[in-house]
Amino acid sequence: MRLGQKMSEGAAVSKRALRIAFAETAGQNPELAPRRSRIWAAEVDVENAQLKNRRVVVESPDDSCTLEAQDFFDNDRKLTYTCYERGGGASVWTLDLASGQRVNQSQAIGSYNEVEGIFPDGVHTCVESDRQAVLRGKTEKFRDIDIWKLRLDGTGKSFERLTFFNDYEGWKASNPVVSTDGRYMAFQAAKTADEAGVGYGILLKRLGK
């Protein structure tokens, strides 16, 4: 398989090896049934510009859960991914690549929870979440996101808010990534009227000493 393969959104890229995971839908692969999606894992053969040992690691038969790969963790034994749900919701999931076990990590903490940058401890991850809007009693889902820190313990109970842009009318924060030493988080500021991915510059937040 050549590296020109189309993918949905971006790829999860290992920090330890030449390994990636990525999603595809019928929009990228017409052989897939409409509304179906799946995530592939593969090794990158740089010398021959191709993917090898390619395998499907998780599939969804319809748009009740449209898949997007995000990050490897736990020494590349596990993968975080987002399940985009009907009606504009989203949830954070993890996949054990050996056993195939899948866990809904976000449970019912908000109606929109999109997993983003993993922390170097492999125990926590950033999440774009509308949790604060849900608590206020009204949410526009992805238009009302801020950045939260979620512990990947399967309970959805350890959820810490990291940004407060959505407390100000018309603003949100998105697309966080955590430095490899865990001391900083880069993210972007955006407006609630914007579509996903739009931003107005990169900001840096100190997370620790």
Question: How would you characterize the overall build of this protein?
Answer:
It is a single chain. With 209 residues, the protein is mostly beta strands. The chain has one domain (8-167): TolB, C-terminal domain (Neuraminidase). The chain has one helix spanning 131-136, and strands spanning 8-13, 19-25, 37-45, 50-60, 66-73, 78-84, 90-96, 102-104, 113-118, 124-129, 146-151, 159-161, 171-178, 184-191, 202-206. The chain is globular, with a radius of gyration of 17 Å. The strands form 4 sheets. A 4-stranded antiparallel sheet has the order 1-2-3-4, with no helix packed on it. Strands 5-6-7-8 form a 4-stranded antiparallel sheet, with no helix packed on it. The chain has 1 helix and 15 strands.
Question: Can you give the mean pLDDT?
Answer: 94
Spans of at least 5 consecutive residues with low confidence: none
CATH class category: Mainly Beta
Cα radius of gyration in angstroms:
17 Å
Classify the fold: give the CATH topology. Answer: Neuraminidase
- Report the end-to-end length measured between terminal Cα atoms: 44 Å
**Count of separate DSSP helical elements:** 1
CATH homologous superfamily caption: TolB, C-terminal domain
Strand order, biggest sheet?
1-2-3-4
Q: Could you say which structural class the secondary elements and strand pairing correspond to?
A: mainly beta
Short description:
The protein is an all-beta fold and 209 residues long. Helices cover 3% and strands 48% of the residues.
